[in-house]
Amino acid sequence: MEVQMRFKRELLRLMLATIFILPINGFSQDKLVLTLEKSVELALENNPGLKMAEKELAKAKAGIWESYSTILPQLSASANFQHSWEIQKTIIPNFLKPMLAPIAPMIPELEQMPDFIEMSFGLENTFTYGLTLTQPLYLGGAGIAGIKISYAARRAAEQSLEAKRQDLIFQTADAFYACLLAQEIVAVQQEALAQAEANLDNVVKKYNVGAASDFDKMRAEVEVANLKPELISAKNNYQAAFTRLRTILGLDRDTKISIVGQFEYAEDDFGNKKLSEIQNLALQKRPEILALLEQKYITKKVITIARSNFLPKLFLQTDYSYLAMRDDYKFSQDDFNKGFTSAISLQIPIFQGFKSCKQYQKAKLDYKIMLDTEKQVNDGILAETEVAYNKFQEAKQKYLAVSQSVELAEEALRLANMMYKEGTNTQLDVLNSQLALTRARLNYVSSLYEYQMARYRLRRITGTLRQAL
Question: Do 252 and 111 sit in the same domain of this protein?
Fold first, then answer.
């Protein structure tokens, strides 16, 4: 009897794969068959949130080269053409008049010469072009700090990406096992309805020969009627579970999918660890913690950059240029003169309207805020780990408690049916046995689902989810 019942359940599960997944007009050749591993692979490929995190990592990597630009030489080319609509004149002493004073008697016109004369310097058109090289020599530590910040930002982005990956893997596993659970529940409800209908047939046969009362027949009919809505709800939950899985995997709504897998109890060595060990592991491995440490490092280096605003800065600049001047536009190569100069400039900040002072204060406050945030996050993770650990232990104990109940309930129902046929018990005993078996099966698959998800959740919280798959 037990072998027959198990065979019947497996047959129902196979039927479900065709009833709810395949289209009404026939079998589809494009149906996507999913295992847990395949589901995770598709989610990692298609999820928009994960793609955004990958782009954030690419931005952080680009920021590394950007940070190096502050300490590398800057080379720029320039060209300039200038036309003077009116050349500026300058009044200067007439040096010629005093020089000729000794021979003034021989030059009568000398007395009429002005003491000052106007002169124009330059020509109407000026054309220059050249190269300028600027090399920072000392930036008060801001350049090196900026480079270190960019590397820390990349590491933080990597950890944020890993956190999103693990979240997505957990959501995918949850959705996948929710489909398995819904499939099992439909199978249990199908079998419960089949048992109730079989019991109704037995009661009707006994009623027809006068061995059962109207009340027995009515009660059997009510039991069948009560189970039909539960089966309808189970089927609807089955469809909803597949819709959720399809959404998480980033598949089109019209994509037809089926799942391959089963609930199995998998022992986890986390069950043999102490809570304190698991909490320490979470603080060491959790991607969010590692990303937060990088953020704290960044805020510390921002203080260095803010402090550099009080320090002098030293630059080396070299110019290599050509200049030509003409009153017309007929420039030729012979008109250009070469210039080659180098200079070292020192910039010393004296007063910037309290800007540097306030930036330094803000940087220090940001670092203190980050320390408070770190403590808050650590406390939250410790509490979250404790809750997940206790939930894992609870789910494990619940599974061990119900693991034998299904076989006992099946045997109890077999005996109840046999004794009812022999007339040694009532139909109420049969109905109670059927209800007990249905409850035992539902408790069994639910406990397996709760255990598996509690196991994955504990692994996710400690940053070790990949090892559990």
Answer: no
